[in-house]
Amino acid sequence: MTTCEPISTPFTASSTADEVLRDVDLTGVRAIVTGASSGIGIETARALAAAGAEVTLAVRNTTAGDAVAESIEKSTGGIRPRAVQLDLADKSTVRRFVDAWCGRPLHLLINNAGVVTGGLERTREGWELQFATNHLGHFALATGLRDALALGAAERDGARIVSVSSTAHMRAGIDFDDLHFERRRYDPQIAYAQSKTANSLFAVEATRRWASDGITANAVNPGGVATGLQRNFTTQQKESLDAAEAAGVFTYKTVEQGAATSMVAAVAPEFAHSGGHYLDDAQEAYTVTNDADLTQHPHGVKEWALDPAIAKRLWTVSTDLLRV
Q: Which of 26, 97, 120, 135 is least enclosed by beta carbons within 10 angstroms?
């Protein structure tokens, strides 16, 4: 484990997004939330809008996104969010989304969307779908919006990126020799774990590269929340989740509680100019080196998910893949 004491906040595992945002005025803040048409994404967008932010819902299905936008407008009495089409597994829609942003200052990017597959699926490039969507799509979006984030940082003394990871990252690091399961046996749990490790590593390297421009990124674990993300779980995955709950690795949260840690990373002063961290239950997590450490810190983060050398290598590999 690291010798430094993790950053703490006043919030806990039971805090809600609204509690984190209480007394926070986000008027003038432009925020993008990916995957904002279901689950934690809806609650994240709603809480931000209720605090006064101008929210863009980046969604695959704009009909569903428009319905969410209408619901948020009615429930908050605030500005109606915009729903804009974005399929993170399709490079062309990511480019179109970035181009349509037109360089406007961006203050908050919440990379919330994610997929879980029950079997091997690939993009048109042949990339494994979970890695392509959960990591590469968000990587392309964030790098494409980097200049907009820098403008936003200049406006408001900093811009933030929230990269939604998962406890699942503990199952696997990054297999650079076979990222897309072209040779090894496909295991959807390992593939998902690899993508969630990548989400954390992105925050590490993005902060290293962009902090001088006022942009910081942090990874978060929302905790166990029953959402549509689990609809493709295999029986083995469901049993594994049940076993983890029985062992106390996590306790199911409401969506309001699940969105809270993202809000901590998005607005808490403790993380205003401090990035490259992994947050769990509204606090920075302890780094664990082996499974034995998890008995003391069940909500920790594996070393491989914060390793700066691995993060730098993943950034280079991701850039090369998306350049083709």
A: 120
